[in-house]
Amino acid sequence: MSRATTIGLTRSDLLRDGGYIDGRWVAATSTMPVTNPADGSLVGKVANLGAEAATQAVDAAAAALPGWRARTGKERAQVLRCWHDLMHAHADDLARLMTAEQGKPLAEARGEVTYAAAFLEWFAEEAKRVRGEVLSPHLADKRLAVLRQPVGVVAAVTPWNFPLAMITRKVGPALAAGCTVVLKPSELTPLSALALAALSEEAGVPAGVFNVVVGDAPPIGAVLTGDPRVAKFTFTGSTAVGKALAAACTGTVKRVSLELGGNAPFLVFDDADLDAAVEGAIASKFRNTGQTCVCANRLLVQSGIYDRFARALAERVGRMVVGAGLEGVTDQGPLIDERAVAKARAHVEDAVARGGHVLTGGGALDRAGFFFAPTVVADVPPDALLCQEETFGPVAGLVRFETEAEALRLANDTRAGLAAYFFTRDADRSVRVAEALEYGMVGQNTGLISTEVAPFGGIKESGMGREGSHLGMDDYLQYKLVCAHVRAAD
After folding, report:
1. Tens digit of pLDDT for each residue in 264-298?
2. Is 75 designated active site?
3. Check whether domain 265-444 has CATH 3.40.309.10, yes or no
């Protein structure tokens, strides 16, 4: 039985094993295994490409740039829209492939396909709306115009936790603006990226406009950060890696955008709607088994509602179904690898050692795969690892606070600044807290904030630049002043 059949793919040709460079599928003498984190089974093997292939991909992107840049925004939009339609047409295959290599529940994977395709649709529309300016001249014989043009070749490095959406959120605006792209997906989830490349070819994306280099990160990354033909570098991942990659880009003064780690506070005030706050915490903390950069990392709860919230959340979390996404309905899938399990375990043990109490869950499950029980820990002190580090797992730590001022002090006491959440029914507090939280995105009475129509990004050490919305085009366009001398009539 083929691996595509085991996964349940309708189109077996979406399971690819080579890189995609200049419109061709590229093999390699060595390969990397891709395994299912739910049971360790082999999903597939992909080419282990390196610096030479990365350079070939930059060659292809640079050669394709003039032709793609010369197309009208409407022409580029038509290609992106076709790519969007193909994603929807093959949504089930894409979702099953994603669940097999990443582990998220199948329902979540289907939701990500829809979310990922939405960026192609959105930026297809934005491709037709790139505007320049005509300025009032400073002299009678001068005319001033400001053009907005594509920056050029873009290198994109994407993570494993959202293996489709993090690609289209970058590639969509890049292609809409007239740029060409070299993509390096995570070694843990390359199959989703390669399936997306297969659909891009069907959609009419020209050879060299979108290239995918799979393989070992360091040699590929060295080419993408060091090649002067790459004008823009965009990365989503950990803060430490993002800093190193940004530093490597300074030698050629590339434009850089970074979406890095978070440490999101989730504030629940005494006047909050308890049921809404619990459901918001579930949506934010446990989506993708807690493996999201914007998930609630610290749940700060005011003392008057603390005990009721803790009981309600623990009861709700305790009913979650944990299992492999391709084997039936499940609320929580596995973590990505053993290191993720070890980190979740260490955070729980540290919280307990500092006086915390496990209300439900608390440890790894005794079964194949990297499963960790959905966990709620009460009475966590602010200096615990659960509060100081990004857990990236299904562990909710509850911290008690007394006043609004204390809550804001605790919430802002971090170098991360990606996302924050708060629940209150007080209109004045809603304004004060939203303005005081030092984060790039704030959810008010909701645990879900991501959408293609709104800007996504953080402040402080959580990155720079914005993805999504009309602002998502900005990092892929540059300004050019044209100052023209106009002779007076004879």
Report:
1. 999 999 999 999 999 999 999 999 999 999 999 99
2. no
3. yes
